[in-house]
């Protein structure tokens, strides 16, 4: 861990409004995450942890409060600016893998680079191959998702999250659909990426997974406890 703050939230509140009904799901969240951190955010279903992740990921905006990501004030950014910042700086890993069934592992990993106008096809393919080799799937690059195990599909998803060389990796219940042995393998891979210098945030309800982090942040009823 360094002393460089890359994520800073101050007094973050999130309120959803439907007609005359208001539902507050986050209350005065203060959080600092430093470059090189490995953080877990834990809480029961409905605690607000996914909403917090969405705000950190710039997929949603706070109702009130201040959020700084890599030194940028998020409130002042347009949606297009946020999309560019997110694609460049954040890699995503999901519980359900989110792979495209009609595309090979090789093609799935390249998907985030299709939004770039400056990366040539050859470079894109080289990057994808490197990322798949990094997660020990160099011999599965032409396999389709239905030809891969759950653990292998999640490794493809991790390779995809690395393709833009992001500063931050956000993992939302990355082992939720995996058995215990495969879960341990995936967490081991995330720890390996952390040692290489990545900042990693894991959302989980699994205390065993949470204990692997440098720090665990507990959230309950929309508040950090």
The number of domains: 1
pLDDT < 50 runs, ≥5 residues: none
Roughly how many Å is the radius of gyration?
18 Å
Percent of residues in helices? 25-40%
Distance between the termini: 23 Å
CATH architecture: 3-Layer(aba) Sandwich
How confident overall, as mean pLDDT?
92
Q: Which sequence of strands runs across the widest sheet?
A: 6-7-8-3-9-10
Strand content: 25-35%
Describe the structure.
The chain is α/β, with parallel strands linked by helices and 225 residues long. The chain has a single domain, classed as Rossmann fold (3-Layer(aba) Sandwich). Helices cover 32% and strands 29% of the residues. It contains 7 helices and 10 strands. It has helices at residues 49-56, 79-89, 105-110, 121-134, 150-162, 180-195, 207-210, and strands at 5-18, 21-34, 38-42, 64-69, 72-73, 90-94, 168-172, 199-204, 215-220, 223-224. It has a 6-stranded mixed beta sheet with strand order 6-7-8-3-9-10, sandwiched between helices. The protein has a 4-stranded antiparallel beta sheet with strand order 2-1-4-5, covered by helices on one side. Strand 9 and strand 10 form a beta hairpin. Helix 4 crosses helix 5 and helix 5 runs parallel beside helix 6 (180-195). The longest helix has 16 residues, at 180-195. The protein is globular, with a radius of gyration of 18 Å. It starts with a strand and ends with a strand.
């Amino acid at each position: 861990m360094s002393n460089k703050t890359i994520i800073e939230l101050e007094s973050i509140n999130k309120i959803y409004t439907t007609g005359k009904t208001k539902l507050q799901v986050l209350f005065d969240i203060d959080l600092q995450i430093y470059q090189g951190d490995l953080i877990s955010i834990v809480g029961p279903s409905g605690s607000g942890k996914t909403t917090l992740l969405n705000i950190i990921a710039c997929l949603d905006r706070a109702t009130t409060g201040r959020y700084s990501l890599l030194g940028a004030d998020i409130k002042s950014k347009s949606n297009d600016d946020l999309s560019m910042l997110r694609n460049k700086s954040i890699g995503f890993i999901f519980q359900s893998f989110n792979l495209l069934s009609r595309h090979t592992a090789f093609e799935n990993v390249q998907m985030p680079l299709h939004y770039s106008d400056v990366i040539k096809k050859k470079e894109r393919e080289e990057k994808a191959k490197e990322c798949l080799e990094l997660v020990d799937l160099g011999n599965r690059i032409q396999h389709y998702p239905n030809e891969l195990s759950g653990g292998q599909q999640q490794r493809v998803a991790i390779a995809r999250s690395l393709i833009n060389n992001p500063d931050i990796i956000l993992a939302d219940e990355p082992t939720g659909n995996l058995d215990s042995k495969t879960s341990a393998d995936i967490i081991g891979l995330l720890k390996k990426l952390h040692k290489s210098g990545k900042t990693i945030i894991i959302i989980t309800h699994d205390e065993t997974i949470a204990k692997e982090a440098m720090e665990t942040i507990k959230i309950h009823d929309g508040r950090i406890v």
